[in-house]
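FIELD: query
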Amino acid sequence: MPGTPTQNPAQNAAQGSTQDTGGDTYPPTDRTVPTRSANRASYDKEAVHAILDEGYVCHLGFVRDSAPVVLPTLYARLGERLYVHGSTGSRPLRMTGKADPGLPVCLTVTHVDALVLARSAFHHSINYRSVVVHGIAHQVTDPDEKRLALDVLVDNVVAGRSADSRPANAKELAATSVIRIDLAEVSAKARTGGVNDEPEDLALPHWAGVVPLRKGYEPALADAELAPETRLPDYLKAL
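FIELD: result
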């Protein structure tokens, strides 16, 4: 996870209550134990962090007016805390408010690694890695923690970018909100491997196998108004 090499008071505030959650695993709960394929679940913190750190778009679920709502949005991890970005007018940001009890949420992150094509339609699947986080979202009101969270969100998309761009001004900070969710009730789930066809289907004349997916970046395209002397940063060349 990108970040500054030394901690400041805001980092200590962000991490202080959530760094030590007792061991290397998250305790399973009724909400984090899958009802199907429970053998694919993991509560290992290192595995959970790796899945979270690889992505930057999550789906945030909550209930509004007795109806479920799920929104895609940016997120980033700092220690045992997730930060989620939004505008001050967005629903979850308005609902978290500035005081307890906060907003009950369910946050999910998924990576699709491969398509699994079986001989039978029933056994088609995907290889994937996912994380589900249950918790209470609170709005970040401390100015230093908010600036830190926004830097972490930017750096999670492109490492090093927050130091290579203009920081948000007072007007922009007022128009932007951040919510935090502590990692406590968490599980990872993954599928790996190949086709699981029935023995009686193995002789069928249908192609079966795995189609791996890969993530990549095309060359960066400069803005039309970019100053001529501005060079492509090394961190973009490394993508």
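FIELD: remark
Confidence is low (pLDDT under 50) at residues 1-10.
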